[in-house]
Amino acid sequence: MSEPKWTVVAPLRPRFRDTDAMGHINNAVYVTYLEVARQEYWRAFKDDENYRVVPFILARVEIDFRSEALMHETLDLCIRCSFIGGKSFGFDYEIREQKTRRLVVKATSVQVFYDYAAKASIPCPPEMRARFEAFEGRALAR
């Protein structure tokens, strides 16, 4: 079975502090790796390093652990937008060991469009939906 197409793939070298007592990447660290993937997605999507203007907040994360990863391995963080709803959108992720392509993690997250000044969720801005669909090269309706 072939790997799905990913919009952004970013290499990551785990740090020693990411490991547990057995030398594996600790399970709690993977949420941070997903955040790094979102950061790389945003950088490619907006061609901008300013993460302070991200118009969303994280609402949900689901992770399936498939195999161990070790500090000396390079991991590929794979991400794509999976849907855009009225006020939210989803990301799909895979984390793979770079050389063997071994699947380490499959994950999903839901983000909510958010007005930080009002501290409230907002509807998906139409221009944001259009930009996501252009960046992904496909329709993103639920």
From TrEMBL:
<dbReference type="Pfam" id="PF13279">
    <property type="entry name" value="4HBT_2"/>
</dbReference>
<protein>
    <submittedName>
        <fullName>Acyl-CoA thioesterase</fullName>
    </submittedName>
</protein>
<dbReference type="GO" id="GO:0047617">
    <property type="term" value="F:fatty acyl-CoA hydrolase activity"/>
</dbReference>
<comment type="similarity">
    <text>Belongs to the 4-hydroxybenzoyl-CoA thioesterase family.</text>
</comment>
<dbReference type="InterPro" id="IPR029069">
    <property type="entry name" value="HotDog_dom_sf"/>
</dbReference>
<dbReference type="InterPro" id="IPR050563">
    <property type="entry name" value="4-hydroxybenzoyl-CoA_TE"/>
</dbReference>
<keyword id="KW-0378">Hydrolase</keyword>
